[in-house]
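Chapter summary example.
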Amino acid sequence: MIDLGQSLPAIDGIPLTTRPFHYSLIQDAHIRLIHLNVGARNDGLSIQIQENVCLETAPVYEALSYTWGDSKKERNVSCGSESIAITANLATALVQIRNPDQPRILWIDQICINQDDVEERNKQVALMRRIYSQAENVVIWLGEEGPDDAMAFGFVPVLLSYLPPLSAVHGVTRQGLVARQAIPVIGSPAWIALSSIFRRPYFRRSWIIQEVALARHAVVHCGPHMMDWDLLAAASSYQMGQLASDAENAHDAVAAIMEFNRNDHGRGNNLVDALFISYRFNCTDPRDKVFAMLGLAQELVLQPDYFSSVEAVYLQTTRVLILALANLDILCCVSHPKRIATLPSWVPDWQAQVTVKRKLGKSRVREPHAPHHQVRCSDNDRTLKVDGWCVGSIATVADVFTRNESGLDIRWNEFVEGTIYPDGRSYTEIYWRTLLAGESLPGTTCDEELQSAYEAWRNLLNRRPGGGYKPPTNLVDENEKGTEFHRAMTETCVGRRLFTTAQHNLGLGPSEARVGDVVCFLGSTPTPFVLRPKEACFELVGESYVHEFVEQGHPLPQLTRKEDKRELVIR
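The structure predicted for these 571 residues follows.
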């Protein structure tokens, strides 16, 4: 095995006096490609660079999807009489994936983009949608082999033999799998090994979402092990639906990739959805929280700009999306507290630590026939002015729902239990609808089935010693409906809190919501928002769900009458 920890001359076979590679200017809509030369395991790395390749007429090539790892470029790769410094993880990948008998043509950002030329980076990043979607294959490099990787890669085909086809994996339940005793129980070495694959740094990287979602075909490499991406994704999708919550976060990336991949390789996606997902992933440059998602949008409404500060990028992104989409859906991404304290309250801070798993509001494409409501956010003003309606004020709040706090679900029940409307109605139905934010469960077709699932979940709570729900430890749970309800409500409620309004409405809102905040509809957005009154203006706290305020996805007409509309100033 080649030792990548040796001194540079021993690793690469390149004299220290070799000149650094000189990048030529690259034309618009052109890229560079590398030809990775053949070599045995212990040979030094050498490449050739093909410059100014027109994307329209580019030869067949592959694109690499990987993590930079340590950003220090401590390895050298030979390029004729010159050399290029690369990171250790990339060097390891190139050694592993090069062919022994013929060169491999690749696009790799670290080499094919002149990272020292900011203007070039702006243009090349804007092309990445085309680069990855046009590649014949995307090579996914997870890193060097770990002790249990052979077991994990061997387990995947065994697991998939018990599963429906990939197209049917999402939403699969334990029902019908009861008799399949050959599937190992959770906690067995095979499951642990597979979960460890998805806990690798690769799956926490923002850029992989578009790189893999846009791929025609993708192959996963982990040390010497290889597997089609679709197979690994199917196994992960099954885990997400079936395993306890302690493994759930490890699979966020796969879930996002599959979601965007299903939408016709990203062509049907809304950038707002992609930007909300970016909260959960890492990138070295905070601006890439936005730029890494641009390729997933229906059309490129924003251009990457690495000359701008992080704050300027986030502010401009929010402004442009409000104007380009002609709606305020981007406000559903707002969360607190923010890392950039100087950002206006209505601008998402994609660096913030966010615990919520999904948006409450559904993103929409531009609606040319939607009712016109005045929205103003000028380039030189950090104030958002929008037509809106204040429809309630928050009177009480419950504790914030966290995934691992024992008994919190019981306390939420106590918050609601016994509460009745002035006319004598119970909160029960509105409560379970609020816990799901108006959504249904996989496999349910009517309200009676949803009510039954809620009651099954309540029964599970009542039977647990000390109260509180505990996830199952095997694939065949004693109460499938209750478990599925808990999974869905946790995904909806984690990082949020229940509240009631002075008008006796039950709602689900942001963790920062407090007594005295107001619930408002803004413009034509069907999602109610929580605002905090300040002197002559409001602060945006976040999105909410109030079941009694909406009907078939739209605000109730009596809440948004023309004569009650007012200008709301948000800073």
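To summarize the output: The chain is about 30% helix and 20% strand.
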